[in-house]
Amino acid sequence: MTANLSKVVVHEQFRSKRGLAGDFDVSVARYEQQSTYQKYLTMAPGILDGIFPAPENDMQDFVQSNYVNEVKPDTDTIMEQVIGPVDVSDVLLTMGMTDVIVNEVDMLYYGDLAIGTPGQGLTFDVDTGSADLWVPSPWCGNSKNHYDGSQSSTYVDQDRRFAVSYGSGTVYGTTASDTVGIAGTAVLNQTFGVVYRESQDFQEYPNDGILGMAFGTISRSRSSTVFETMMKQGKLKWPCFSIHLARGQETGSEMCWGCFDPTKATGPISWFPVSHRAYWSIPMSGFDVAGERTTFDEVIISAIDTGTTFCYFPESVAAEIYAKIPGSKDASTTYGSGFYTYPCISEVEIGFLFGDITFKLHPDDFNLGMSMYNPAECIGGIFAMNAAQWPSNLAIIGDEFLKSWYSVYDYSNGGRVGFAPSVNNQ
């Protein structure tokens, strides 16, 4: 079974009803905002308070150990060798990703893997905000590609229950193990979910399943992620992966497995240690608007999430950011809680502070389109999360930010995230 990567089908609720190009379609943002609540408040209960690993998960011992430090004690020297005008194509294990663009917004990025022997091709949303691989079974009842274990000579039915709640819905099934093929590399005996029931939400996007790339401590299948299995089996050059997200074009995005692709970056990497090895969560110390820095009284833990489109902050922090943007307004009475507008003529320069470094958000990515109520106002891409429901120290940093920064996720050095300037901004 071969996945058709050129076929992009999106549910009708995401189709534009706009009269003018660039107008804001509230349904997309409202849907994602509610999805983000669900993803982080139900997927891993108890993790939000300081972002700590779920203690019942037996993957904790693996990611908390010195395993990867023994394999590669430090990737810095290696990274320095490849950053620059050198040919490193022989060490790159890359997977191309397709950008799903809805109403001029880059909504989702997915790539293809082969599951089983012989390989069955399926497509997967690459999600650093979750830690499970799952595939739809023939009993799922949708029109997408399916994985059929009976057609694989390496399939093993583990007969354990599997259920995950994401921002985009909930899936139910059982666990199995099989060979996963990535760019010609075989990952043996990988555990994943075989889904027999999925909520309607998942049928609104073109990807077949989800590829979770967070730490295995939050895996609902209680197993190592695909990347962690690759490390254990010695399939990788380095214990890190890197992600390039294209802006406004279907092709060009890429995931580099165990590598850093210097053709996707225009400068060196800045590193930040993860708070705990669960999500790829790093401390944010403040923000910058038009060159004016504001530091937080309390450090914000920011989860770097390729599976989320926009950026989400605690209510008080979002209000503080927009207060620095001349002409911005609370749009909760027109669009709903958490929405803000600002003058469309403004070239708003917003940056997030990690450590003492400002990482800017591209103005085109921050501008989600024209307000339907006032053509002089546009919707901002930073959303406020209700204080009654959302932790005061948690932010979610999605694709809106990551399109400007080539991101690297490193298991060595205790776990860290790196940002290098993306070629998107040349």
From TrEMBL:
Q: Which residues form the active site?
A: D127, D305
Q: Its Gene Ontology molecular function terms?
A: aspartic-type endopeptidase activity
Alphabetically sorted, this entry's keywords are: Aspartyl protease, Hydrolase, Protease
**Sequence ranges assigned to domain Peptidase A1 in this UniProt record:** 109-420
In terms of InterPro entries, this protein maps to: Aspartic_peptidase_A1, Aspartic_peptidase_AS, Pepsin-like_dom, PEPTIDASE_A1, Peptidase_aspartic_dom_sf
PROSITE patterns assigned: ASP_PROTEASE, PEPTIDASE_A1
Protease listed as a keyword: yes
Under Pfam families, the record lists: Asp
Could you provide one GO biological process annotation from this protein's UniProt record? Answer: proteolysis
Family designation: Belongs to the peptidase A1 family.
- What protein am I looking at? Acid protease
Organism annotation: Lentinula edodes (Shiitake mushroom)
Organism placement in taxonomy: Eukaryota, Fungi, Dikarya, Basidiomycota, Agaricomycotina
